[in-house]
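Incident review: delayed structure delivery

Summary: a single-chain prediction request sat in the queue longer than the usual turnaround. Root cause was a stuck worker, restarted by the on-call engineer. No data loss occurred. The affected request and its eventual output are reproduced below so the record is complete for anyone auditing the incident later.

Affected input:
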Amino acid sequence: MNTVPKIALGAWSWGAGAAGGDQVFGSHLFEDDLRPVFDKAMEYGLTLWDTAAVYGEGTSERILGNFVKNVPREQVLLSTKFTPQIASDSPEAMQEMLDGSKARLHADVMDVYWIHNPMDVEKWTPKLIPLAQSGQIKTIGVSNHNLAEIKRANEILGAAGLKVFAVQNHFSLLHRSSERAGILDYCKENGITFYAYMVLEQGALSGKYDTTHPFPEGSDRARCYGPVLQQLEKLIEKMRQIGGKYDASPAQVATAWAIAKGTLPIIGVTKVEQVEAAAKAAEIVLTAEEVSELEALGDAANINTLREWEKEMI
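Output delivered after worker restart:
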């Protein structure tokens, strides 16, 4: 696999439709809006892109694919997902979903292919084996799996000489259950890359929103985070204070924290300046004291950010 950047860029908020950018984020972004974002990322060497067949019913993949097809394939790393809930009843359901992703992304091989959630570990994990053996996927990831499910997936794959290469779970200053459950330690011990999604809690930790600057009305994130913005004030203030030392925004501090924890954060990008900020965040090295101060305030905020598709990892 190509050299992996310190962060991945997420395309969950691209496009529209079920589980898409309009419903989840309150945005309506397509090729014309996003091409400068992709171009800037490539310029900065941020070449790892995370998406899924389910995001916007394929529109996220389609938009990304329309950009990817214009660059040499070896210059971009593609990470996409098989989502059990939208699979057909066909015995070839995983191959079919992968084929759809390949067509939309204009790519014959996926660098990372994930099972999006552990709906049925025993049923779906073995389906990855022929995809890997035939060279259609380079590495295997599991998302939203707890420690027991990750270990079981590794056993199933291990029988075929394969392994879980990556884990992708919700991980932020407000949601550290994967750390408390021992998943981060297991990943470190077994050479597994831990991808942290929702590091910015869909913007709640960006410093951009507060009680006088609310989230886009009617969006899923407004419903989830709007009522708790006041509880975040002390944490955001500390992030601003630490950011002053590094000439960094709260969002960059949250990203640097995730990197300091040994994870690979996925940062959703919809604007050129967000790409530039992410590139800079990847260079910030927080002190151990700063990490612990942030975590203490994150815990003290006492906010449950577990979402409807997730479960506690402990």
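Verification: The beta strands are 8-10, 48-50, 77-82, 110-115, 137-143, 166-170, 193-197, 264-268.
Action items: add queue-age alerting; document worker restart procedure.
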